[in-house]
Amino acid sequence: MRKSIVAGNWKMNTTFAEAKALITEIVSDLNNETTEIIVAPPFVNIEAVVKATSNSRIKVAAQNMHAATKGAYTGEVSGSMLKSIGVQHTILGHSERRGYFNETNALLKEKVNSALTQEMTIIFCFGEELEDRKSGNHFKVVQNQIEEALFHLGASSLDHIILAYEPVWAIGTGETASPEQAQEMHAFIRSLVANNYDSVTADKISILYGGSVKPTNAKELFSNPDVDGGLIGGASLKAEDFLTIVNAF
Ligand code: PEP
């Protein structure tokens, strides 16, 4: 059985007090025993969130990490630093990192290798721009992003990868991929994994959808056979909305 997962990406939101209030409300109102739940606060609030979730089953992710273990990389944070405060997960490849910070598939491959060396689990994001979809290139773009950053890995490493399909045109725009568009792409992604590895590996890997998931559309998206949950941006900043999405399976 594949895991159902809902992950909240808080992005560059929440002061220290806001982060503590948000995670406290999520922990106390959580009434779900099956969905895997991950929250990704900004770096400065991450340790407080680790502490606040220590007696719960909520996992904490970084939103990014550097590929090196340590060194002269001013402003950066490494996987070993994250592990040292109890963070086991990291998002990599978010379209905002690819777009604003020029993260390429080649760089992401290095980050993936580094996170796996630290025995972290990766939420690996990818997705096409609007022009790619309009020109019918969306499958090819997604295939390249996945192949170039992940397909050098052995099958056992894929146990530590959660895939997150996030069409860039649907992130923070209020425009959601239709359930049919999401299912079509997720089935394609699973077939890529099956072709490059095998059907057992493909059946095991969780593929999340991200892009304007809300309490009102989560159920319809998650009811598709190849959509195993969501990576949630805006709606993860309100405990009630986030928990409604957690319960939308
Ligand atoms: C995201 O940033 O990963 C995301 C999906 O954002 P939103 O839900 O706000 O579209």
Walk me through the structure:
- It is a single chain.
- By secondary structure, the protein is α/β, with parallel strands linked by helices.
- The chain has one domain (5-246): TIM Barrel (Alpha-Beta Barrel), CATH 3.20.20.
- It is built from 11 helices and 8 strands.
- The chain has an 8-stranded parallel barrel with strand order 1-2-3-4-5-6-7-8, surrounded by 5 helices.
- α2 links the parallel β2 (36-40) and β3 (59-62).
- The mean pLDDT is 97.
- Bound molecules: phosphoenolpyruvate.
- Residues 9, 166, 171-172, 210-213, 231-235 line the site of phosphoenolpyruvate.
- Phosphoenolpyruvate is lined by residues 9, 166, 171-172, 210-213, 231-235.
Beta-strand segment tally? 8
Main beta-sheet annotation: 8 strands, parallel, barrel
Number of domains as seen in the coordinates: 1
Low-confidence stretches: none
CATH homolog superfamily = Aldolase class I
Helix content: 40-55%
Tell me the span between the first and last alpha carbons.
Answer: 14 Å
The number of helical segments is 11
Order of strands in the sheet with the most strands? 1-2-3-4-5-6-7-8
| Category from helices, strands and their pairing | alpha/beta
Taken from the alpha-carbon principal axes, the silhouette is globular
Give the percentage of residues in beta strands. Answer: 5-15%
- What is the CATH domain class? Alpha Beta
Label the CATH architecture: Alpha-Beta Barrel
Give descriptors for this structure:
249 residues; TIM Barrel; binds phosphoenolpyruvate
